[in-house]
Write a structure and sequence with these properties.
Length: 412
């Protein structure tokens, strides 16, 4: 994403929060351009501007290159006028990389370890630095633009995806995905399979009608401490990913009761896909993880991605989800640390009660660096949900508060 546009989309609440927690200063002091994004042939670099239409692109080399196959959701397009049922289609997103094993990130490791005070409270600093080093590898991989990959799609056969563009990411829609039932899931398998170090991707099938959950991740269902730059660094690079107590059980209950299709919408950059996907699979119903197209190799940009322009980003992604599934009944789940209330309120005012049926906002308390007097005040929520019926939105602290509200949706 263009950093200048991200800055222009920063809200006054985000600007105040970032200033109070000294985000800009921390971002400037973090390593930048840790990898070698331009250590690639000049022809690949130049032709990558042509994206999917690049005539000079070529298949990835399994010996030296790899891909990430991101999960997606297939849908049937809905027409304004009565129309024959449309075939399934889905957007396939692939990221292409060089196989860089064990890059030296010792300076960046020391930088992060010192910032978060690693070892100050009896922690094993050596083990902590090992964890930081492993997770930093996601930020230093050299991208491989102008590459394509063949994948095997059940019921379809072999399809070519790509080539990737300037950021070595390809996005393309494939139609006629065979006969599948609502709620089905099928694998996206690269050929050869060993080019996908993080495993195959998954396509989830969602019929035009039914329920849908759009859930934030950070501090909504996963402890991230997004109000503090140091908290973000620690939770991302050192701590074991931890779910918010009670949220896995609540989501299981929603899944059993309403059988929704799931979207996990986060402002985290795509670098963290291999970090967040296993966490979601371990604790929450399977669904599509949507992350931000931010800098691959810039830790300062990583912090900004989570805290700057998030309202505009989430609103834009929700518009795309509405275009895919306009007849679904939506439950939005977020928290008070960032701009979830404002984004969800905006989308309700745009699409009305026919799409968004409930909005649940977790009130985050007791987090260092968060101005609860601003972010948790009633006036903020009233302002964010201006024009939204009071029965549609609810602020909660404990997941157990929502069971009755969820059960009331059955049959509606």
């Amino acid at each position: 994403m263009d950093k200048s546009r991200q800055l222009l989309q920063e809200t006054s609440l985000e600007r105040t929060s970032r200033g109070d927690s000294n985000f800009s200063s921390i971002e400037r002091s973090l390593p930048h351009a840790m990898g070698a994004p331009f250590s690639m042939p000049l022809l690949d670099r130049a032709s990558s501007w042509l994206g999917l239409h690049n005539p000079l692109a070529h298949p990835l080399d399994p010996a030296t290159e790899e891909v990430w196959l991101l999960d997606n959701t297939a849908y049937r397009p809905v027409h304004i006028y009565p129309h024959a049922q449309q075939p399934w289609q889905a957007e396939y997103v692939v990221a292409y990389f060089k196989k860089d094993v064990g890059k030296d990130v010792s300076d960046a490791v020391a930088n992060i370890a010192d910032k978060v005070g690693l070892g100050n409270e009896g922690e094993d600093r050596a083990q902590g630095e090992k964890t930081i080093s492993e997770r930093l590898q996601l930020f230093v991989a050299t991208i491989a633009p102008a590459r394509s990959v063949n994948v095997r799609l059940p019921g379809v056969g072999t399809k070519r995806l790509g080539p990737g563009g300037r950021s070595a990411v390809s996005e393309q829609v494939i139609t006629n995905l065979g006969e599948q039932q609502d709620g089905a899931s099928v694998s996206i398998e690269a050929i050869p399979a060993e080019t996908t170090p993080h495993g195959h991707g998954t396509t989830h099938f969602a019929a035009p009608e039914g329920w849908m959950v759009i859930s934030d991740i950070d501090d909504s269902i996963k402890i991230t401490l997004t109000s503090s730059p140091i908290g973000i660094l620690r939770s991302t690079f050192i701590s074991t990913p931890t779910p918010i107590a009670g949220m896995p059980a609540l989501y299981t209950h929603i899944s059993t009761l309403l059988s929704p299709t799931w979207f996990y919408l986060s402002a985290s950059p795509y670098n963290l896909y291999p970090f967040l996907r296993p966490f979601l699979l371990a604790h929450y119903p399977p669904g599509t993880l949507i992350l931000r197209d931010a800098s691959w190799q810039d830790l300062g940009g990583f912090l900004a991605s989570l805290t700057q322009g998030t309202e505009a980003y989430k609103s834009a992604r929700m518009r795309r989800l509405h275009a895919m599934l306009p007849k679904r009944k939506v439950i939005c789940v977020g928290d008070s640390t960032q701009s979830d209330p404002e984004a969800y309120g905006d989308m309700y005012r745009v699409f009305g009660a026919g799409w968004i049926r409930r909005i649940f906002i977790r009130k985050v308390v007791g987090v260092e660096g968060m101005d609860e007097g601003v972010k948790n005040q009633g006036e903020r929520f009233e302002r964010a949900f201006r024009g939204v019926p009071r029965e549609v939105w609810r602020v909660f602290e404990e997941p157990g508060e929502l069971y009755e509200a969820v059960e009331a949706l059955k049959g509606t």
